[in-house]
């Protein structure tokens, strides 16, 4: 048999060489998910309002909203219907005892009654997150969040916002990810967009001493044709050369907001063409829920993140960008957690007004929570936030999503690895080999979101070295080598 195979391989040497080229092209285009951290959200804010302290200020406002409308874990759990809410005590004495138990022996409570522990853990971890790093990614917006203003005003804001970014760099005030969104590169706005791009980046590089912030991107909205992306890349090249930046330093983020992005005039998807046009500079693709549904002629009352048209576009993005290393980001909840009543100067609200305010905020919170959960369930681990009151809900949904299934996933993974990737039956769930990688991805995403810690993953038997491989197959191989299998 070996001799026959050898002869055939020699006879087909030319065909196999062509196949090798095709395989290399495929591997280059689909390198797999990037190993670095993906933010769980992007906060969009008008460029005219941006200051170096904006992220810190948003964190303070987020904490004020959380403490004002969910001052304890029980109110928070009830407002969002968190997993485990039904198991929580309803009487004051029982709640007090549970809070004291959580504070004194969190690990014991977790082991003894996971569902009682979970809502308290979510509440505590959200508060800690808001205190430490409320904003992971911020986009300084010169498009919808800024609107159409006189050229002189946009010029002034571009310079001022870039100066604030440079100050934020110097003083360590910026979030881990940051960028700015220009207006579209259509014929009507392209000159305005190019001018803002030039003013912002020139000012930033000059003020910062020739460097860009970490994880810095330029967001291009409302793209109908690949040529707009190609043009942006050419603009990047000219700016890099003039400003003394390293070639390839400027990265872009693509907004998928128009039907023409999903299907071109030839009936094929434009999304792979968009990626090719970016020439390796595209780091993310963001879905614009409301612009996209509007382009589908859906009326405002029915535009939503779970509308069938939105789901179709999101699935198209999944198909086009899977394994390319491009991060995907879902859209925003546009119902803001804003109170309808404000206390008069020197006065106070009536109990009835306070209750109306609480119900309005909780209703908006629940909608945002359900939308984030829907995104996570469909494999979109990043989304937009537009208001500081949405930040607690973003983290609550992420943490609850990953913590709810943590114990079951741990059991399945342990069984799976223990049987060296042979199909196994745990309870009534039957796992196949692909699920092994899916379970690893679950833990990696939980770690990335901040829902679980490295110590928690190590406690369930995943070593730091194994986690870094990001590969179920490699983990099995490492364990096999250690045991001599």
In short:
The chain has helices at 2-11, 13-29, 54-69, 73-80, 92-104, 106-112, 114-133, 151-171, 190-208, 226-243, 259-262, 271-277, 289-295, 308-321, 351-377, 391-404, 406-418, 433-449, 454-459, 464-469, 472-483; strands spanning 41-46, 137-141, 177-181, 216-220, 251-256, 282-287, 327-329, 383-385, 424-426, 429-431. By secondary structure, the protein is an alpha/beta fold.
Strand content: 5-15%
CATH topology of the largest domain: TIM Barrel
Radius of gyration, Cα only, in angstroms?
Answer: 25 Å
| Helix residue percentage | 55-70%
Number of helices: 21
Q: What is the number of domains?
A: 3
Features:
single chain; alpha/beta; 3 domains; TIM Barrel; 485 residues; two-stranded antiparallel ribbon; globular; 57% helix
């Amino acid at each position: 048999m070996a001799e026959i195979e050898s002869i055939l391989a020699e006879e087909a040497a030319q065909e196999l060489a062509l196949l090798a080229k095709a395989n290399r092209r495929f591997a280059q285009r689909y390198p797999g998910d990037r190993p670095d951290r993906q933010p769980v959200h992007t906060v969009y804010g008008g460029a005219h309002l941006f200051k170096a302290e904006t992220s810190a200020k948003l964190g303070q406002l987020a904490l004020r909203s959380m403490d004002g409308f969910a001052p304890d874990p029980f109110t928070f759990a009830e407002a969002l219907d968190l997993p485990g809410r039904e198991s929580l005590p309803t009487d004051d004495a029982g709640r007090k005892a549970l809070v004291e138990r959580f504070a004194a022996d969190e690990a014991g409570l977790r082991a003894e009654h996971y569902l009682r522990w979970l809502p308290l853990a979510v509440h505590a971890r959200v508060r800690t997150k808001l205190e430490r790093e409320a904003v992971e990614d911020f986009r300084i917006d010169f498009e919808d969040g800024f609107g159409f203003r006189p050229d002189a005003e946009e010029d002034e804001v571009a310079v001022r916002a870039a100066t604030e970014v440079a100050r934020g760099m110097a003083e360590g005030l910026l979030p881990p990810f940051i960028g700015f969104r220009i207006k579209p590169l259509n014929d009507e706005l392209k000159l305005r967009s190019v001018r803002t791009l030039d003013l912002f980046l020139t000012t930033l590089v000059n003020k910062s001493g020739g460097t860009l912030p970490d994880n810095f991107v330029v967001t291009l909205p409302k793209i109908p044709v690949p040529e707009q992306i190609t043009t942006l890349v050419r603009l990047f090249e000219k700016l890099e050369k003039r400003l003394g930046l390293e070639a390839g330093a400027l990265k872009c983020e693509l907004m998928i907001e128009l039907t023409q992005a999903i299907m071109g005039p030839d009936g094929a998807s434009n999304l792979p063409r968009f990626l090719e046009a970016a020439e390796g500079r595209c780091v993310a693709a963001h879905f614009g829920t409301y612009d996209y549904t509007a382009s589908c002629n859906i009326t405002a009352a029915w535009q939503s993140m779970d509308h069938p048209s939105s789901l179709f576009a999101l699935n198209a993005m999944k198909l086009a960008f899977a394994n390319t290393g491009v991060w995907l980001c879902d859209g925003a909840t546009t119902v803001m957690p804003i109170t309808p009543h404000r206390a008069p100067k020197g006065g106070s609200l009536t109990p009835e007004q306070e209750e109306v305010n609480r119900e309005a905020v909780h209703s908006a919170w629940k909608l945002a929570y359900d939308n984030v959960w829907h995104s996570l369930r469909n494999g979109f681990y990043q989304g937009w936030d537009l208001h500081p009151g949405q930040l607690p809900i973003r983290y609550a949904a992420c943490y609850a999503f990953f913590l709810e299934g943590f114990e079951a996933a741990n059991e399945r993974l342990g069984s799976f690895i223990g049987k060296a990737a042979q199909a196994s039956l745990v309870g009534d769930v039957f796992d196949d080999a692909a699920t092994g990688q899916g379970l690893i991805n679950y833990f990696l995403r939980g770690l990335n979101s901040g829902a679980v810690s490295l110590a928690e993953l190590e406690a369930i038997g995943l070593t730091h070295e194994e986690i870094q491989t990001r590969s179920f197959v490699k983990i099995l191989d490492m364990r096999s080598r250690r045991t001599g299998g």
